[in-house]
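Agenda item 2: zinc ion complex prediction
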Amino acid sequence: MGVNDLFRAIKRFLRKGEFDCDDVAEHSSDYIDNELKADKRSAFQAHLSKCGPCQAFVGTLSSTIGSLGKLPGIIAPSALKQSLLDRMHREN
Ligand SMILES: [Zn+2]
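Presented output:
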């Protein structure tokens, strides 16, 4: 276990199980494969609900893998694309 892993473990502990962007990246394939336990899954989804870049990341990854239709609670690609466009327009 490296220093960075330790640091992240401490951060995770302080956040009481909430996911950050690194955690999402780390667990995204398990999420898409439906292999996350319920508590991690809800932490994952909680982060997704408030983090546009992670929604885009997971959306892209899952549509790449082609299993999006099987996922409960994830935004459909067209809706995701629209929300990203809206977001971009708002920020300009
Ligand atoms: Zn994020």
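Discussion summary: The mean pLDDT is 81.
Owner for follow-up: CH.
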